Amino acid sequence: MGVLPKGLSSVLAKAPTDVVILSSLRTPITRSYKGHLKDAYPEELLSVVLRATLDKVPELNPSKIEDVAVGVVLSELGGSKAARMALNHVGFDSSSTSLYTVNRACSSSLQAIASIAASIRTEAIDVGIGAGMESMTRNYGSRAIPTSYWPALKESPVKDARDCVMPMGLTSENVASRYAVSREDQDTFAVKSHQLAAQARAEGRFKEEIVPVTTQYQEVDKAGNKVGEPQTVTVTEDDGIRPTASLEGMAKLKPAFKPDGASTAGNSSQVSDGAAATLLMRRSTATALGLGDRIIGKFVAANTVGCKPDEMGIGPAVAIPKLLGQLGLENKDVDRWEINEAFASQAIYCLRELGLEEAWKDGKVNPDGGAIALGHPLGATGARMVSTLLHGLGRTGGEVGVVSMCVGTGMGMAGVFVRE
Questions:
Q1: Is 164 a catalytic residue?
Q2: Which pLDDT value is given to residue 144?
Q3: Annotated catalytic residue, options 106, 164, 307, 350
Q4: 28-43 burial, b for 16+ CB within 10 Å, e for fewer?
Q5: Residue 1: what pLDDT?
Q6: What residues contact residue 290 under an 8 Å CB cut-off, 6+ apart?
Q7: Which among 170, 418, 395, 197 is positioned nearest to 299, based on CA atoms?
Q8: Which DSSP category does 38 fall into?
Q9: Greatest CA separation for the chain
Q10: Residues of the chain with pLDDT > 90: what percent?
Q11: DSSP classification of residue 154
C-alpha cells in the first residue's frame, strides 16, 4: 500500500502526489427484469458513463487517460471485450488508453478505483478511470453461483471451501441467527432505507451524480409476454425506491431463503442494472493540465480483508477498523459512511459492531438510503457508492468519507475518500 498518511490532519493535507478525483458519475440504478434499463446491455450502460466522464471534464484530452479498470461480476468473458469495445465506441483513443476488467464480487468497482489509484500512486500512469457495470437482468441466470467447477471442491473436507458457493441469502440468515438480528430490526432498517432514498430523490439529491440513459425498452406483462413495440426511453431516476414502504407491508413478506428465516425480498438488496465511473489523476498532473479547479476529492486508501464465507456479510466490520487504524483515524473523524446494504441483517450487525448505530440515527450512515432501496448491480455498486459519497459530502460540507461492503466468498473491502 505504500506510505499512508497518519492522523486526520495528514489525511486532509494536500500534496502534489495525491490521487485526486475530478468526476464521479453513475447511471440510474433500476430493477432487473422490471426496470427501464432491463433491456440495456452492461457495456451500453458503461459507454454512457464513460462518455459522460469525458463531457464532464471537456478540457481533458481523452488521450491523456491511460488506463481504465472496469468492475464486472456476471458478464461473459469477464466483460473485457465488450467493455473495451464500449470504450473505443464513445471516443477514447485506442492507441493511448488501455482497459481491463476486475471481479472481486460486490466490491469489484471499488477495487477498480483502488487499482487505478495504485497505478497512479506508483507512477505507472498519470490519469485513469475506475468504473463498474452490471446487467443482472441479462446475466443473473445462475444466481451468481458457478454451474461447473472442479468436483473435488464440492466434497472438500474444508468447510470454508464448500461455503464459497453458499447462496448469499443463507449467509444473511447465518448472520441474523448468530448475532441476534431480529426480523423486526431488519424490516425497520429496510423501511428507513426506502424512506431516506425517497426523500433524497424527491429533493433532487441524486441529480448531480446521475447520467440519464437513452435506450430501448420492451414492455412485458406478468407472464413475460411482449406488450406493444419496443420504445426508446430516457431513464433519469432510480426506480427501485418505494416511498410507501411500511413495517406492516414488510411484515407480510415471506422469508426468501429458508422457511423459518428472517431475510426477505423486502429487507435484502435489490437485483439491479447500472454502471458508474470515477476519473482519477495525480494532483500534480491536474495542476499541470490546468484542471486544479476541477478536483472534487481525493482517494486516500483502501483495503480488503478475509472473513468466514458462511457469514460474509460481516466483512465491513472487519475491513473498516483495519483501514482506519492504518490511517490513524477514528470513527469521529468520518463525516459520512456508505456501507452497502447487501442484507439488512449484515448491515445492522456491522453498525452495531462498528459502534455506528447513533451515527446511523443521526444521518451519517447511508443518509440517502442504500442498496435495499437503491439496488445492488454487483459490478457497479462500489463506484456508485463512491459517487453518492462524494456528491453527498459536497452538499453537506463534510470532508472524510468511508465506503465499505461485504464480498461474496468471505471478504470485506473499505475505502477512505476526502471531499475537496
A1: no
A2: 85
A3: 106
A4: bbbbbeebbbbbbbbb
A5: 45
A6: 59
A7: 418
A8: T
A9: 61
A10: 96
A11: H
211-239: pLDDT as tens digits: 999 999 999 998 889 999 999 999 999 99
pTM, rounded to two decimals? 0.97
Catalytic residue selected from 36, 194, 376, 391:
376
Q: Is 406 a catalytic residue?
A: yes
The residue type at 383: A
In angstroms, rounded to a whole number, what is the distance separating the alpha carbons of residues 277 and 48? 10
Express each pLDDT in 284-318 by its tens digit.
999 999 999 999 999 999 999 999 999 999 999 99
> d(Cα 400, Cα 33) in Å, to the nearest integer?
36
Distance from C-alpha of 415 to C-alpha of 269, rounded to nearest angstrom: 21
Mind giving me the DSSP string for 304-323?
EEE--GGGGGGHHHHHHHHH
Per the residue annotation, which of 164, 307, 350, 406 is the catalytic one?
Answer: 406
Tell me the residue length of the chain: 420
Q: Respond yes or no: is residue 106 known to be catalytic.
A: yes
Q: Is 9 exposed, middle or buried (0-12, 13-18, 19+ CB in 10 A)?
A: exposed
